Amino acid sequence: MKKLFNYILALGMATGIFSACVDDINVGNAFLEKSPGVDVNIDTVFSKAEYTRNFLWSAYGQIYCTYTSGNMMNGAPIDVLSDSYHCYVSWGGPKQSYYPGGLTEDAQDTEDGNFQGKFSYSTKSGLDSDAGGRVSIYETVRKCWQIIENIDRVPDMQEAEKSRLRGEAYTIMASRYFDAFRNFGGLCLVKKAYPVGENFTEGRATAFQTVEFIDSLIQCAINEPGYIWNIPDADIGQWSGRLTRASARALRAKVWMFAASPLFNNDKPYLTYDKKPTGFENEEHIWFGKKDPSLWNRCLKYCDEFFADNATNGNYYQLIQPATQDEAGYRTAYRRAYRYRNDATHHEKLFDAHPTQLMSSSVKDGNVTNGWGWGWAGFALDCYRQGGAVPTNELMECFGMQDGRDFPYSDIYGAGKNPNGVDIFADRDPRLYETMMVPRQSLPAGFDYAGFKYIDSWEGGAMYYDKSNFGDAEGDDGASRYRKFKWMLDYTSGRMDDEYIGVSYIRLAEMYLIRAEAKAETGDLQGALDDLHIVRSRVGLGRLEKMNPELNLTSNKENLINEILRERNCEIGAECGDRLYDMVRRMRQDLFTKPLHEIRVYRLDANGNRLTSGDQRWVEGTPWPKFEYEKIQIVNGARRWWDPGYWTNKWYLDPVSRIEIQKGYGLTQNPGW
């Protein structure tokens, strides 16, 4: 049997495709006429422009977003597999599969969310099944090819729009292949819409063939004459989130950044097969066969093409800048950049997903009608809220100081280690305060926390007594003694619902960071530092090389790459899973195997002794306390990766579906699984 899920390549246009929840702000009006019944066929879909558009909108609903239930692990976002966040909820998939080392080949096929892998390649019940909200990448591929191959048949659509929709379909399809490439390596490449019964015989492509194929799809999108560079400002209120030529160019740079990295681009594979049960296994499915430094030149070329095209189009996409040069201004600019959709005056997002409109409707209850995308809109955001992704102390230390220095307090943890009472949370990179809740004496105007102008989240502080406002230190959501802030803000509906959200797949800040990495890898260290400074200066940070002279960043490439990865975590962490993917593509075994930590902050009395019992809340108008700090290794859900000798490089990529392998069309398993 050599058929690549014949059911995936049939049209299968049941009513559900047309009646999928559609966010009016993002993709226009919902289907305006009565939805066709289950007998809808390809002729119906491409008989009218409105039907065709809505078929494409359903593919938009499958764009990757880590905050939808379709990304598996029972709704836990994949950031919890990185060193920045940890899953504490007992029902979170990571605690059942990845953390104890229990992931198996069944991860792609099980309907039990606790044992699913982090990404959906296929679904056991078929492509059209809503298996816990999961959708196979090939469901999206099928839709996109059908649009590309049939849109010329639509009688009431102008050629310019047909070209534009083809560009969007190519970009969506390329993004879905890239999603799978980051998780599995070489893929089965479907290059047309197969009719029912036609055999797929190409088998699994090599990793390099896969990335070249993704690149070819992006080039097809760029070549479409009707594919516009940006959404006109007059239309952006209706169409924010639609893809553009800028989306395609940005995706191309991101694809080659991943491809040029050491996971695939190396002098040897990350892992070899100790046995080949089907005989078709090939190391080049997960390796380029050699190390080719010129791939970084290719990444840099595509970055430069993006910025050149942007300049030709009046530099339409720009970083959102602070209105005032202070913490409030910096935080407002950063929040608008990562959280909100583009509008007529703010154009930073290049490629984003809209899993829901308003945050509180996603995280407060399950009766959501304004979301669109995979499965229960906001389900993963709800897991995120409950303790499915709690910041680690390692994430806190990732953020440097307001003047641009890296975090300087490595030797401050432990009894008697802070005799001067240094407040390690003061005068930090403003993005720290937008990412996680830490003790703060004075919040800037407009940034109160549930009405409070301070945050005393230490042992015995408000998280123990004012739990409804500051969170519960004894609950899953505050288990590390940090509480998330990015996306959730202060958890009140009034604040979370201020504007519609957009979850970045790529935004302009990342384009500068991608170019910085490519410049560093090709020898232009000063150019890389200049790009870093463009991003860092938005939040008022000093130049990295000037404020950290001991790192020798103008000459030490390794240190500079590490700083770029750290900066990526500070800027785009918890947006599209990039911290995890950075650890994977850079093969950072050291970060995967290093135990992660919580924090304990102890208030000191006038004699410098720890207060360990009773009500220790701060009283406004009194001096801010002095503290001692303890760094506590995480034991709730301790990861097997931390056990000496346990790690194996098989964890860089996930296992593919054994059920799919057994269908006989040439899919093979990744090594180690």
Explained architecture:
This protein is mainly α and 673 residues long. The chain is 36% helix and 5% strand. The strands form 4 sheets. A two-stranded antiparallel sheet has the order 1-3. A two-stranded antiparallel ribbon has the order 2-6. The protein has a two-stranded antiparallel ribbon with strand order 4-5. Residues 1-38, 126-131 and 365-377 have low confidence and may be disordered.
Report helical residue fraction.
Answer: 25-40%
Strand order of the largest sheet: 1-3
Mean pLDDT: 88
Strand content is under 5%
The profile of the biggest β sheet is: 2 strands, antiparallel
Number of helices: 27
Number of strands: 8
Estimated radius of gyration: 25 Å
- Uncertain regions spanning at least 5 consecutive residues: 1-38, 126-131, 365-377
> Which descriptor suits the 3D outline?
globular
Topology at a glance:
Elements lengths: L5 H4 L5 H4 L5 H4 L14 H4 L3 H12 L24 E2 L6 H4 L40 H14 L8 H26 L22 H17 L12 H4 L5 H16 L33 H19 L14 H13 L9 E5 L5 H6 L14 H10 L1 E2 L1 H6 L31 H6 E2 L24 H4 L1 H4 L12 E2 L8 H4 L6 E5 H14 L3 H13 L6 H4 L9 H16 L5 H8 L3 H5 L3 E7 L23 E7 L24 H4 L12
Antiparallel strand pairs: 1-3, 2-6, 4-5, 7-8
Helix pairs in contact: 5-7, 7-8, 8-9, 8-11, 9-11, 11-12, 11-21, 12-21, 21-22, 21-24, 22-24
